[in-house]
Structures are given as structure tokens and as C-alpha cells.
UniProtKB/TrEMBL annotation:
All copies of domain Fructose-1-6-bisphosphatase class 1 C-terminal, residue ranges: 183-311
Annotated protein name in UniProt: Fructose-1,6-bisphosphatase class 1
A cellular-component GO term for this protein: cytosol
Catalysed conversion reaction: beta-D-fructose 1,6-bisphosphate + H2O = beta-D-fructose 6-phosphate + phosphate
Principal localisation: cytoplasm
NCBIfam families: PRK09293.1-1
Sequence ranges assigned to domain Fructose-1-6-bisphosphatase class I N-terminal in this UniProt record: 10-176
The organism of origin for this protein: Terriglobus saanensis (strain ATCC BAA-1853 / DSM 23119 / SP1PR4)
Length: 315
């Protein structure tokens, strides 16, 4: 019998929670796969708190995940990229989980049939905290992402290794095909939006030049940039290398969001022997101050993240 997501997770409450999210992702996948046939491409006509145009599929994905989580007795609150404020379920005494997510990451790729994804972070309310207490990523109890691509892949960690599943479209279940994923300690690719390079701080420019000419880590790198964080991260997890979204004068904290983009991927990276920093600090140690805050981001294989962080921190 192949192992599915539901049978793989030991903790029953967490298994129920992550399975509900996976079921929502199956609905999202089905809508993405046939997007051109169902008038769901394009803009929804509303701007979210990030100042970004919401796409119809952003809204659909958000609604699917919320509908899956709302009925669960264990879910106390939801924080979504697409909702300005956290949604707190006041009618669930004893609910312990906060689900924090980007329902559809890589929105700019939706209309052109390029990979997009879903990213989820799970936190647990501890004594003395409320459903809206914001905590550092090192308090996450689980993290997962789904990449909608040629295959639809789900990768999760619940704090003991990273495991990968492929969606079987016939049974609509996620079937285990990578147990204990490990990121190579060094890899062949770097991934950054190089159109912004003139605006990167000199240390980042130096790091990229050193990857290109082989002086940073003794190998000459190739570049890959999809523009969907989940897809760029998934390649980095499997093949090794580094993804970076540096600061610029216009965006001193970069573009990516700490709570539902950087934190869950950083937990997965670390669990797979990789690393993630903001240039000076481990991502998972950053104390958040607001749900939608941004962070600069360096994530991937240990050697690249260490070398670039050293330069970025001026050491
Ligand atoms: P989104 O959540 O609105 O889709 O934005 C996040 C995306 C990431 O998937 C990707 O890494 C990044 O934005 C790309 O940004 P840029 O176009 O500036 O390179
Ligand atoms: Mg997004």
C-alpha cells in the first residue's frame, strides 16, 4: 500500500489539519489545470493589503483553504496573504492551531501557465497567548507547500524531517515518494531577480559576481529564476543552490513576507539540512511585529547561505 499524507503524519490533530489543507489544494489544482476553460484567469478587480492586484485564482484559492479550515475544531485563527486582518474563530474554545498561508504564490505566473504554489505555516497557541499572538518561526509546529506544476507535489515537515508527496490524479490523494528529503550542501544554481541587481547592496552584487565567476565557492553557477517562490525553492531543495531576494533602497525589507512565505520555507530548508537568513539573522529567529511584514531572504544550501550571509552582514 502506498503511504499517503494522512497516514504519514503521526499526530492525529495535525494529520487532520494538514489533510484538510491538502484537500483544498486538490481543489485548487483542479481549477488551475483547467483555468483557461472556466473564466478564472485574470484580475479580480480588487487590491490586497500588499497593494497587489488580486487575481481570480488568488481569491478562489483563499476561499478553498478557508472553507477547509473553518469547520475544524482545532483551528483558532487564520492569517492569509489575501486578508488584511487575521480571521479569529471565537466560537471554538480550546482550538489550538493558527494557520498562516499564502493561498496562491507566484500570481504573476498564473495567466501564462507557469508553476504557482500554496505555502502554509502552522503555529500552536501556548499558555498565556491568544489566537492573534505573533511568534517567531522557530515556534512553527509544521510547514508545507504545494507546487502546481507538471506534477503537483506536496512537501511538509512537522519537525522531524521533510517528506514529499505527488498528487495521484486518479485517487486525488498525495502519495509519498520522498522520505527524509535532504538539500545538497552546495548546488549548481543561484536564483534572484537580476533585473534589480543595480539596486542590490554591494555585498549582494559581490556575492552574485562570485557565484558567476566561481570565486565565492569554487564553482561557477548557473542562474534559474521562475518568479514563483515555491517553484524556485522546490528546485533549490532538490538540486541545491540558493534563492535570494535582497533589499533595495526602494524596498529595504525586500518583497517576500515573513510569516507565510519565509518562515515555512525556512523551517523546511532547515529540516532538510539547508539554511535561511535575512542577511544578518536566522529567519526562524525573527520576532514578527505584524502579520504582513516583509523580509529580505536568502535560502538554500548551507554553503551558499553561509557565504552570502557573511558578505551581507559585512563580515
Ligand atoms: P505573490 O505572493 O504576490 O505571488 O508574490 C510573491 C512572488 C514570489 O513567488 C516570487 O519569488 C516573487 O514574488 C517574485 O518577485 P519579482 O517579480 O519581484 O522577482
Ligand atoms: Mg502570493
Amino acid at each position: 500500500m502506498p503511504q499517503t499524507l494522512a497516514t504519514h503524519i503521526q499526530d492525529q490533530d495535525l494529520a487532520t489539519l494538514l489533510s484538510a489543507i491538502a484537500t483544498a489544494c486538490v481543489q485548487i489544482e483542479s481549477r488551475i489545470r483547467t483555468a483557461g476553460l472556466s473564466d478564472i484567469l485574470g484580475s479580480f478587480g480588487h487590491t490586497n493589503i500588499q497593494g497587489e492586484q488580486q487575481q481570480k485564482l488568488d481569491v478562489f484559492a483563499n476561499d478553498c483553504i478557508i472553507a477547509a479550515l473553518k469547520p475544524l475544531a482545532t483551528v483558532a485563527a487564520i492569517v492569509s496573504e489575501e486578508d488584511d486582518e487575521p480571521i479569529v474563530f471565537t466560537d471554538k474554545p480550546g482550538a489550538k492551531y493558527i494557520a498562516i498561508f499564502d493561498p496562491l504564490d507566484g500570481s504573476s505566473n498564473i495567466d501564462v501557465n507557469v508553476n504557482v504554489g500554496t505555502i502554509v505555516s502552522i503555529q500552536q497557541i501556548e499558555a498565556g497567548e491568544t489566537a492573534t499572538t505573533l511568534k517567531a518561526g522557530n515556534k512553527q509546529v509544521a510547514a508545507l507547500y504545494v507546487v502546481y506544476g507538471p506534477s503537483t507535489i506536496l512537501v511538509y515537515t512537522a519537525g522531524s524531517g521533510v517528506h514529499g508527496f505527488t498528487l495521484d490524479p486518479d485517487t486525488t490523494s498525495f502519495v509519498l515518494n520522498w522520505e527524509e528529503m535532504k538539500m545538497p550542501p552546495q548546488g549548481p544554481y543561484y536564483s534572484a531577480n537580476e533585473a534589480n541587481i543595480a539596486d542590490f547592496p554591494p555585498a549582494y552584487q559581490q556575492a552574485l559576481a562570485g557565484l558567476r565567476d566561481g570565486t565565492l565557492l569554487g564553482a561557477k553557477y548557473s542562474s534559474r529564476y521562475i518568479g514563483s517562490l515555491v517553484a524556485d525553492f522546490h528546485r533549490t531543495l532538490l538540486k541545491g543552490g540558493v534563492f535570494l531576494y535582497p533589499p533595495t533602497a526602494k524596498a529595504p525589507n525586500g518583497k517576500l513576507r515573513l510569516l507565510y512565505e519565509a518562515n515555512p520555507l525556512a523551517m523546511i530548508a532547515e529540516q532538510a539540512s539547508g539554511a535561511a537568513t535575512n542577511g544578518t539573522q536566522r529567519i526562524l529567529d525573527i520576532a514578527p511585529t505584524e502579520p504582513h511584514q516583509r523580509t529580505t531572504f536568502i535560502i538554500g544550501s548551507r554553503h551558499e547561505v553561509e557565504a552570502i550571509t557573511k558578505l551581507a552582514a559585512g563580515k
